[in-house]
Amino acid sequence: MPPLLEIAGLSKSFPGVKALDAVDLAVQAGEIHALMGENGAGKSTLIKVLTGVFPRDAGETRLSGKEIAPKSPREAEALGISTVYQEVNLIPHLSVAENICIGRQPTWIGTVRWGAIAKRARAALARLDLSLDVNRQLSSYSIAIQQMVAIARALDVSAKLLILDEPTSSLDKTEVDELFKKLRILRQDGLGIIFITHFLDQVYEITDSITVLRNGCRVGCFATKELPRINLVSHMIGRNLGQVEALEQTRASTATIRSETPMLEARAMGKKGSIQPLDLDIRPGEVVGLAGLLGSGRTETARLLFGIDNPDQGTIRINNQPVKFRSPRTAIRYRIALTPEDRKVAGVIPSLTVRENIVLALQASRGSWRRLSIVEQEKLADRFIKSLGIKTPSREQIVRNLSGGNQQKVLLARWLATEPKLFILDEPTRGIDVGAKAEIEKLIQSLRQDGLAVLFISSELEEVVRQSQRVVVLRDRRKVDELTEAAISEQAIMESIASHSSERPEA
Amino acid sequence: MSDWLSDLIFWIAVAAILFGLRRQRIFWTVGALGLLLVFNQFFTPGFFHLQVLDGHLYGSRIDVLNQGAKVMLLSLGMVLVIATGGVDLSVGAVMAIAAAVSSRLLVTQHLPAGVAIAVALGVSVLAGAWNGLLVAGFGIQPIVATLVLMVAGRGIAQLITEGQIINFLDPTMVYLGNGHLFGLPFTLTLVIVMLLLTHFLVRRTALGLFIESVGDNDEASRYSGINAKQVKFLVYTFSGLCAGLAGLVACSNIKSADANNIGLYLELDAILAVVVGGTSLQGGRFYLVGAVVGGLFIQTLTTTFYAKNVSSDIAPVPKALVIIAVCLLQSEVFRTRFARVLSPIEKFLKPVGSWLPRHLPTTARHDSPKS
Amino acid sequence: MTRLNPKYIPLVATAVVLVAVFGTGSALYPNFGTPRVFVNLLNDNAFVGVAAIGESFVILSGGIDLSVGSMVAFVGILIAKLLQVGCDPFLAMGIALCAGTFAGAVMGCLIYFFEMPPFLVTLAGLFCLRGLGFVIYPESIGIDHPFYAQVLPQLSILVAPKAVLPFTAMCFLASVLVGTFIASFTRFGRNVYAIGSNENSARLMGLPIAQTKILTYALAGFFSAAGGVVATFYMQSGNPASFVGLELDAIASVVIGGTLLTGGVGFIPGTLMGVLILGLIQTLINFNGTLNSWWTKIVIGVLLLIFIVLQKLISRRAVTQL
User: Fold this and answer.
1) What is C6-321's CATH topology?
2) Is the CB of C207 less than 8 angstroms away from the CB of A153?
3) Mean pLDDT for each 10-residue chunk of chain C (322 residues)?
4) A224, HSE (Cβ side, Cα atoms, 13 Å)
5) Nearest in space to A9 (alpha carbons), one of A49, A38, A48
6) Same domain, A394 and A428
7) Which residue of C has its CA nearest to A137?
8) Interface ipTM
């Protein structure tokens, strides 16, 4: 008997990026199949191609042995493939019943039959062993319930395959248990379920098999029972053979100029729903690596340190002075810089020039009136274009037209121009080519030698190991380990991440 | 001076300006204006006639400059608002308020013109600040926030004039919209001074950079330490000031304050001027001079209709078509979909100007997916 | 104890305002609270009301339609001209309604296919229709067709002593019923709500975005044109220069009627109440005699502000609840 879903050789490119490279995937009826991978691994793209949001470049998909090629989510749904997304993609202002039935309401000569809708919604919810007041507005229910409603909607069309894209990321422990109970019911009913998550515990709790993606390629497909945690972590973020050769082995030397007094000291700093209280010291001349899987609280920590979010507990001291950041502007005043994880959303100003992007932060700290003269701006831009090797036809080039690596360098230049004391780098090497990667790594080391404090966040373990003098390991939004100097190794970090803990996040 | 000689000098000057601007984005705005003038040169007798009376120049082209002053002034404020990704629908109503305040103080309170003008401008700035407060402070969408003053503003203006049309003869106020300086209408001087002032305000300080940055990527600007709220508040306030000035000119033109009709639909003309001037409604890069030339273009269009004896009532139709055409050219979807039709034109125009080529999708822009 | 569903808060506020305004009027003026005043209110605001129903759909879908005033004027002069050249009144109305629907659909296509901002496209619509009205005939044309002069006045119902419900008011009430039916009992109507609330979700849920959006503007065009037809009943003439700024009244009625300007929340009967509030304020000011008409605009502006801020607060609370 053929598998329920069979994907073979699926490829998809976006300009400049190969998002999926000949990916295979097979899901049986009555199994829960985990799809794992870090940011940029291609999970979302795979789902979007499968459900017809993006057209594919190559490859084929078979559902119950029949070739399919849906062109829209609607078509995919009609074929029996339903998706529930991470952010609940329902209409918060409408009632529960309507959310389940909208678009396929029972009608009587064009008139929507509200009674029948409520009945059908109750039936769909009953399949999940739930009973709600279906006439209440969806937004009056918790996210967990909304998630269930989304699943009920997905099941309302006789679905054969249910895709759950990170459904648990905003649920607490009891809610997750509740969800898993429902999923087990559905598995019994013979549904195939693709489950995307970054919580290892959950993968081992509920799934039957695991497919790991990395950089758009399939690493492998494993039976969950036969794959030790450590191997899974290694498949996701461990050594990537292709790149090791290209990158110089510049394992940071331990003998560095380092002051023993920390530049930044965070004590029990935390924010409910974002990261549990943690301690963190960063000294001048030191690179502190922040390791952990996607969703472990890496970016959240950076956001607190840069004043984008405000911690609701704990203290931050800079050079022994207690500080409170209300906005990035306060953090910048204390000479902190941050290059964000998402360059497009929070980093570059796409339609301004390289020069303007480079001077932006320095100019912002000087205010509107003390404008840098054009000559000063040009000097500054030229200096960084040269010293960072930004490949651009001119300093007046629009940043949108640069490659990812060069955009990242422009961002680094923007902050270096402000002469920061603490530099937070959130995934500075993601989505850029190997050459630029090596250059950025070298730059980080030279900054450290100049006495900067650096907080380095990366999904690639070897990179963290190579760069850091100290590594803080995060898991499920809490700090689980801190490794120093000789103790830092990929193996040690992976073990910390994989170490089983009975506790679950209380996000 | 014979007409053909002055025409010749005029056309040489136009050609020289176009040549000088051939690599600038506003080439297309100026070019469109030039085409309209060419049409008038051949098909509108008397359009190019200039005459000197009492040392002052008169003629259709001078009328365009004088009548267009209001839209040009408005567009100076509007272009900054649009650059931040917003829009100010209340400028017409603020014009009416400024006109009402100044003439009321002048006529019923017998205050000197200087005081009346100053108070009127102060009130306009307050009105702009109110919009800025709603948009930046409360985070209400710009269209919605400025709609409030658009509706209530005219009522406030009528309240101030007590529903009367106030006529005035104060020489200073009358001079504002009808006087001459250096043989040219004073309004022209006013527009140029305001243009220079605005240019100084945004390009000699870092404000322009911040405005473009906020309009292009609000979040990244915040991450870079820009006070986005302050920037937004400032542009709406400045737009209020510009609207106030335009309102004073408008009531001076007709030597009376008519709260019902002053500035009616001018917000639309101002938005149009900004868009024709090359600034995208999505925010980001803005073109000050482009907006002013855009205002001139719209006025020329209107004046051409007058000259051709087309009823002023039908004039909105071509205006609407211009809006649609310009916005289609700015629409990403349109350019992608009709790339095949547009690319030969692009090739043909490449040696001439750089606006279309640079903005046609020569490099596809797709956001790479996130997993 | 069931908590009040937050989506009803603006509607309740609308009802409270309506009762308060009506109560104030009745307390101040003995003649105010009579059925006759109420019937006149419906009659005087019928054309705004009908147009506001269409505007409600556009705003519910997250857009805005600025072409309402021009559309009403355009349809008015179109019908007047057609009748002048001897056209059958029903045919003339049919032509007018088709023209309005078509214009709406064209605007909808521009908005959907080229992702142009609705306020700009409908602004162009405003200019175009205003100009086209003048192309048809540049001045007011009176309508003296027997249908208008003799049949229409008889199409009225005596609802209370000295209170005759005229045909225009019936058209208004019928529009409210039809609009409510479309909004609440058709798939199209529900899709409008979904798109206005969250277009991205609606797309991922597989709802027909293109069809719904274009149809929304077509429907708004139809209702605006119907408003124009009702206006000819009311004015007994057509004038291309009339109804300037009517779109603002329509938008204000919709918002004061409790519809969220950002889309997704609102009720058609709310729009009816919004129109009545606006009309009552006008009536109140007329009754007063010493207050002047500009107070209407100021009061409407203040009400608009209150409702916008109220909506902002509700949506902010909804966000923090998540």
Assistant:
1) ABC transporter involved in vitamin B12 uptake, BtuC (1.10.3470)
2) no
3) 64 88 86 82 92 95 92 94 90 94 95 87 89 89 83 78 84 94 93 92 87 95 95 89 86 90 89 92 80 80 85 65 40
4) 18
5) A49
6) no
7) C5
8) 0.82
